[in-house]
Amino acid sequence: MEKFTRLTSVAAALPQENVDTDQIIPARFLKTIHRTGLGKHLFAGQRYDAQGKENPDFVLNKPAYRKAGILITLDNLGCGSSREHAPWALLDFGIRCVIAPSFADIFYNNCFKNGILPIRLPREQCLALMEDASHGENARLTVDLEKQEIHRPDGEVVTFEMDPFRRQVLLEGLDDVAQTLKTHEEAIRAFEARPSRAWVPSTKQASRPQSVIGAKGETV
Predict the structure, then answer these.
(1) What's the predicted TM-score (pTM) here?
(2) Quick count: other Cβ atoms within 10 Å of Cβ 54?
(3) Whether the Cβ atoms of residue 23 and residue 46 lie closer than 8 Å to each other
(4) Which of 51, 55, 116, 159 is the most exposed place for a label (fewest CB within 10 A)?
């Protein structure tokens, strides 16, 4: 998983509440188990019309936001089903940071597992950042995870809270597998060094004569 330390990017504003996972990535695109290729289907219901043509009014179709690395929305981002394809689609599009007043719990957790930084901010601050985002390429935001700061175009610094463990996971780029290997490396190596089939007798043991008890109880 790619590390997240500092990101400077155009931000795309989606001033909607309850943006659910079906809006982020519609169910018809969930047949794949691959994490790549989903970016083109991100917000498909809003980005394209019934004929598959781009909706020029949707923010991610506007030239200034086609390479946005930050998405700002309102309350309860990622509600709905628990599909992990939602952060996959965001990441494949190029979005590394999502900002909202609140998130659905499972979506919030899935973001960390896939290298996306979800930031909770008061609604007023989200609206202020959306205003910054409305200026397109002339108003880039810088998100500094090490310092837990967002630098606005006018120089103002917005601070945010982050669980120390989750912060470290993103700074080091550790997914679940990498965390397990890091935390339990010695135990894993010890397990791998054990005989692969400890329940099978050794050749020496197997060659020993075996005693057989006869029908009358005598040893043969």
Answers:
(1) 0.82
(2) 12
(3) yes
(4) 51
Please give the domain boundaries of the chain with CATH numbers for all domains: 6-180 (3.20.19.10)
Q: How far apart are CA 11 and CA 142, in angstroms?
A: 10
Residues belonging to the chain: 220
* Cα–Cα distance measured from residue 163 to residue 86, given in angstroms and rounded to the nearest whole number: 22
CA 20, 25, 27, 33 torsion-angle sign: negative
Please report, in tens digits, the pLDDT of each residue of the chain (220 residues total). 999 999 999 999 999 999 999 999 999 998 888 888 999 999 999 999 999 999 999 999 999 999 999 999 999 999 999 899 999 999 999 999 999 999 999 999 999 999 999 999 999 999 999 999 999 888 899 999 999 999 999 999 999 999 999 999 999 998 877 777 767 667 777 777 777 666 666 555 555 555 555 555 565 5
State how far the Cα of 75 lies from the Cα of 34, in Å rounded to an integer. Answer: 29
119: alpha, beta or left? (left if phi > 0; alpha if psi -120 to 50)? beta
Cα radius of gyration rounded to whole Å, the chain: 26
Q: Which residues contact 120 (CB under 8 A, 6 or more apart)?
A: 100, 101, 102, 103, 160, 161
**Dihedral angle of Cα 141, 151, 101, 170, to the nearest 10 degrees:** 80
Q: Report d(CA 57, CA 47) in Å as an integer.
A: 8
